[in-house]
Write a sequence for this structure.
């Protein structure tokens, strides 16, 4: 398929979009901000016969709180997330992660739906969504289903999304006042970089530095995002002082199964899983202390 | 000296149109009847070509022509010094950047498709992936004379005795990366031939006249029938010094029936086919006395020039000439090897070999200072040469030499004086800060053995303004503004009355390259040589017009005055024009040279050098190994500063490029194949990696330069490399000798350090 032969259709409503998705015949793919799509098109990897351009479907661009849940439209940009007062208060880890996506231009164009759709092991909002217990609403002409993000992604770039479906909503549980989160990223440089390792942490705190429970999710160290259950189970063991933090962090390297690629060796990635967890927990505790 | 323009913060004359994006680069142009050119690159890093079948490609609808080596009318080769690189390979390919065929087609996509239809029958050969291996007998020979392209050697004094007498000796090996120029505009341009066979090539380059010569040689075509326009340029840094696509454009233009043909490399193609900085392995052994006096330096440097020479020989020669720093070391044994491999192609790049050796000598200076308990600036001040003294390579330095002054300024700058305080201000407990200093120098102009001249023209225009023409291109460094300042100063007019034309074989005189930190110095001197001729022309003409003696005529800002009468330049133009007299003058200049070449040095010494000292502060995250450069002080000796704002452009850009070289950048090649593809994995600094950069010039005027100026375009990126390396050591105790100092390398060095400590406490 040559790029010049690819068509683009721009539906003006969600229902029109779903109708287009249900059409058989030509191979299609949704394009939102296009920051992943155009790169892969250029590389020859994504060459559908027709792009379904959803960038202008404003009905899919929102952040709302209702029924004890925060609902995020898939066309919400990273910049929208960064500037959202609701998310700043009740999903700090996601805001943190959105700030680390590329740089301003990418944050303006790139969407959360696109970040999930690409399902890269290095996708920066994904670990945050994992620790926030995100659920995704997938809609087709005839059906609607909701499933946890863990079940949506099953490999690098591989998801359970059917040809006639699209992501129409991301649902997260808002953090309570004693819940705090942080996102840590290590890339080859500060801006415009693909994560070598990243980690999202969300903790429910009690008195002092005592943590009741917490969630930790690593990116870029396995085929998909992975939760560090062993580390999580150690979080409530005592005051989260420097010593406990260091001990928990040391365990992290056992939980990850990274590979060596052009960006880093597997050994370094393992070490960095520990380092980022240590850095993240330390920073979180310092913030909690100052609150 | 009281000046109106020179030495002042004059805004870039090309600034507004570049900042607004209004300026069109040559690769931005499109024409209705334009066709697209593409280059077929080799599939293998080293292979024999058995046959090339272009028929299927030719038959693809929309294809205009497909060319191979058989279609080259003249000489099938190019290269600035030795034309050992085939324009289109015929029998062997030596790197994956090698060109095998050319296509012109109606669209870019058709051209790309056509490439995939060209069937080349290759027979893969053993790949020479390592420069040291290339020098062994078992490595296949990549060129008829073997794999050693050049060898330089400078030897002075008595090494054995010096090392015997030494109180301290440090010895280490350094590895440097294959840096990419990463210009914003990749290689490209367009070519067109008119009905009368006149060929125009518009292609960014760093020496239009030489590009024209290389094109003419391959086309067997009268160079006077070729016009090369090489300016403006979306960045070059040495990467467009060699031929990029000019000859391809010319060959295709012969076959497109007068339609303009455009080639513009994708970033991926540019990564593979464009020249890069030579990766070096440098072994260095330096000896000193207890009091810090340097006694001896032994250097063995091996540079990987890839498949072809380009300027590799000159790069190695310059590296060796500069390998001892701006010091006076009495005993030296310096040896450099420029070696062919199948690793792409290396060539000119800002710094030209000096970057790779500076990191060695400057690290050794710090190690010696530490071991002897001498302040690192003191140690340097003790050993630097002053004007009139003998350098380490053994020549008397007759031109201005400002290292000592730059070191004094470094000593007194806030960052250095208060370094203890700044170092203690870390933001988190696992972060560590270090502050270090390093100094270096860089030759200006060509060395011995190469002609080096400048030329400029000044033309009086009908509206009474002046058009200044200099061959040297504006590659982004700001030389056009410097030329305008010098012209305005000397013609006693407003700078808005000066316009500049550069890099055009039909409109400017040959003024040599825009390389070797030479264009402000050389072009500036040429403008300064032409200007008095223009004033003379103005005065003589006015005298003639008024029937007065020329001594009664005075040059006033923007006009001539005589006996209370004012003659605008417009009238002078009209008078000259009406009398069929020329309105154009020329100025020529020959660069001063040293008389005697140092034996075996390949062109050393230079007559002139620019000097610079850097002070930097870094912060290392010991948890991850990330290094952040927090502050840079750049202290250049560029002679008289023509434009402080332009100088800061250089010191700031140079510092960032040096940061990139030290911490991030490397084109990775494995067994001849590029692992780095594009800017996804080639990491250059962004604004978030850009620290506060202060510039404190010391002005050590150079007699021979325009208004006392020298050159500074390259040394601005050099000492910072060593300074960052030492600052990492100052912060953490870990020495990195293999650049770039990526987080992983620094982290591993810290890990090793911990292991050593554990072992030594046992
Ligand atoms: C220079 C640069 C830097 C980058 N840096 C980062 C970074 O630091 N961190 C990071 O995580 N990513 C980064 N990215 C990747 C990219 O910007 C993000 O993944 C972004 O969120 C993608 O969103 P998009 O709207 O542009 O997706 P698109 O490119 O439009 O789409 C991506 C994929 O998602 C699918 N998709 C989009 N919307 C939906 C939907 N509603 N339902 C179902 N499928 C959908 C598309 O079909 C496609 O397969 C970078 C990209 C570039 C070019």
């Amino acid at each position: 398929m040559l790029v010049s032969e690819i068509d683009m259709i721009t539906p003006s409503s969600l229902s029109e979009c779903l109708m287009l998705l249900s059409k058989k015949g030509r191979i299609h793919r949704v394009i939102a901000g296009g920051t992943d799509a155009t790169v892969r098109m250029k590389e020859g990897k994504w060459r559908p016969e027709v792009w379904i351009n959803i960038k202008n479907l404003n009905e899919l661009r929102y952040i709302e709180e209702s029924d004890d849940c925060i609902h995020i439209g898939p066309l919400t940009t990273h910049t929208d997330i960064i500037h959202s007062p609701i998310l700043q208060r009740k999903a700090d880890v996601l805001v943190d992660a959105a700030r680390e996506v590329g740089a301003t231009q990418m944050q303006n164009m790139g969407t959360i739906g696109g970040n999930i759709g690409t399902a890269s092991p290095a996708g920066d909002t994904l670990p945050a969504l994992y620790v926030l217990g995100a659920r995704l609403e997938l809609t087709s002409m005839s059906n609607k289903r909701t499933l946890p993000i863990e079940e949506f992604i099953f490999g690098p770039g591989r998801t359970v999304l059917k040809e006639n479906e699209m992501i129409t909503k991301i649902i997260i549980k808002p953090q309570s006042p004693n819940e705090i989160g942080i996102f840590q990223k290590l890339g080859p440089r500060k801006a415009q970089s693909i994560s070598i390792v990243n980690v999202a942490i969300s903790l429910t705190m009690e008195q002092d530095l005592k943590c009741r429970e917490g969630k930790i999710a690593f990116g870029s160290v396995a085929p998909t995002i992975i939760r560090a259950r062993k580390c999580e189970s150690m979080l409530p063991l005592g005051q989260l002082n420097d010593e406990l933090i260091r001990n928990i962090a040391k365990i992290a390297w056992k939980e990850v199964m990274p590979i060596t690629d052009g960006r880093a060796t597997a050994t370094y990635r393992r070490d960095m899983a520990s380092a980022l967890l240590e850095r993240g927990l330390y920073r979180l505790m310092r913030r909690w202390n100052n609150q | 000296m009281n000046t109106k323009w020179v030495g002042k913060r004059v805004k870039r004359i090309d600034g507004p149109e570049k900042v607004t994006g209004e300026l069109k680069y040559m690769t931005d142009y499109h024409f209705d009847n334009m066709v697209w050119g593409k280059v077929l690159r080799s599939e293998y890093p080293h292979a024999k070509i058995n046959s090339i079948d272009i028929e299927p490609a030719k038959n693809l609808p929309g294809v205009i022509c497909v060319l191979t080596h058989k279609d080259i009318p003249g000489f099938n080769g190019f290269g600035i010094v030795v034309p050992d690189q085939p324009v289109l390979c015929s029998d062997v390919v030596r790197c994956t950047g090698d060109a095998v065929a050319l296509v012109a087609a109606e669209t870019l996509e058709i051209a790309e498709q056509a490439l995939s239809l060209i069937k080349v029958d290759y027979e893969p050969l053993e790949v020479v992936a390592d420069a040291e291996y290339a020098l062994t007998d078992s490595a296949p020979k990549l060129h008829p004379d073997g794999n050693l392209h050049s060898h330089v050697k400078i030897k002075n004094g008595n090494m054995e005795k010096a090392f015997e007498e030494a109180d301290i000796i440090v010895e280490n090996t350094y590895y440097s990366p294959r840096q990419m120029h990463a210009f914003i505009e990749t290689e490209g341009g367009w070519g067109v031939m008119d009905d009368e066979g006149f060929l125009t090539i518009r292609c960014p380059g760093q020496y239009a006249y030489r590009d024209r010569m290389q094109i003419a040689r391959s086309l067997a075509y009268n160079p006077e029938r070729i016009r090369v326009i090489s300016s403006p340029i979306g960045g070059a840094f040495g990467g467009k010094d060699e031929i990029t696509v000019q000859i391809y454009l010319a060959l295709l233009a012969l076959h497109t029936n007068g339609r303009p043909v455009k080639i513009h490399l994708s970033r991926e193609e540019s990564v593979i086919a464009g020249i890069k900085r030579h990766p070096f392995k440098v072994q260095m052994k330096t000896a000193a006395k207890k009091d810090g006096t340097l006694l001896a330096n032994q250097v063995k440097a091996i540079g990987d020039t890839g498949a072809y020479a380009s300027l590799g020989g000159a790069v190695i020669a310059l590296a060796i000439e500069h390998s001892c720093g701006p010091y006076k070391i009495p005993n030296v044994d310096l040896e450099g090897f420029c070696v062919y491999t199948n690793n792409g192609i290396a060539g000119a790049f800002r710094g030209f070999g000096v970057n790779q050796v500076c990191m060695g000598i400057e690290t050794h200076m710090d190690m010696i200072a530490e071991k002897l308990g001498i302040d690192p600036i003191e140690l340097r001040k003790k050993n630097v040469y002053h004007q009139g003294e003998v350098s380490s390579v053994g020549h008397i330095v007759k031109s201005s030499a400002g290292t000592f002054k730059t070191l004094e300024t470094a000593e007194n700058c806030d960052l250095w004086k208060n370094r203890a305080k700044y170092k203690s201000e870390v933001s988190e407990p696992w972060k560590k800060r270090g502050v270090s200093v390093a100094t270096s120098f860089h030759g200006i102009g060509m060395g011995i053995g190469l002609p080096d001249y400048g030329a400029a023209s000044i033309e009086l225009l009908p509206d009474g303004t002046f058009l200044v023409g200099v061959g040297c291109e504006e590659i982004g460094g700001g030389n056009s503004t410097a030329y305008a300042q010098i012209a305005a100063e000397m013609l006693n007019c407003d700078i808005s009355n000066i316009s500049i034309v550069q890099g055009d074989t039909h409109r400017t005189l040959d003024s040599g390259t825009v390389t070797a930190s030479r264009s402000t110095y050389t072009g500036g001197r040429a403008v300064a040589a032409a200007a008095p001729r223009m004033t003379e022309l103005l005065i003589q003409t006015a005298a003639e017009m008024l029937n007065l003696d020329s001594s009664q005529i005075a040059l006033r800002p923007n006009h001539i005055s005589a006996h209370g009468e004012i003659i605008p330049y417009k009238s002078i133009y009209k008078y000259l024009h009406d009398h069929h007299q020329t309105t154009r003058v020329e100025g020529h200049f020959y660069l001063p040279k040293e008389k005697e070449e140092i034996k075996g040095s390949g062109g050393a010494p230079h007559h002139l050098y620019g000097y610079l000292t850097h002070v930097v502060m870094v912060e290392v995250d010991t948890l991850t190994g990330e290094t952040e450069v927090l502050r840079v002080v750049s202290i250049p000796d560029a002679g008289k500063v023509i434009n402080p704002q332009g100088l800061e452009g250089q010191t700031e850009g140079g510092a960032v490029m040096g940061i990139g070289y030290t911490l991030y950048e490397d084109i990775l090649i494995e067994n001849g194949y590029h692992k780095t593809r594009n800017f996804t994995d080639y990491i250059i600094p962004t604004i978030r990696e850009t620290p506060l950069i202060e510039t404190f010039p010391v002005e050590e005027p150079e007699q021979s330069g325009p208004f006392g100026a020298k050159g500074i375009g390259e040394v601005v990126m050099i000492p910072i490399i060593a300074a960052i390396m030492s600052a990492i050591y100052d912060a953490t105790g870990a020495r990195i000798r293999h650049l770039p100092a990526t987080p992983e390398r620094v982290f591993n060095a810290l890990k090793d350090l911990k292991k050593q400590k554990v072992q030594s406490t046992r």
Remarks:
- The mean pLDDT of chain A is 96.
- Chain A touches chain B at residues 2-4, 103, 186, 188-194, 196, 262-265, 268, 271-272, 275-276, 278-279, 282-283 (CB under 8 Å).
- Chain A is about 35% helix and 25% strand.
- Residues A 29-37, 39, 74, 101-102, 106, 109-111, 113-115, 117-118, 123-124, 161, 166-167, 192 surround flavin-adenine dinucleotide (CB under 6 Å).
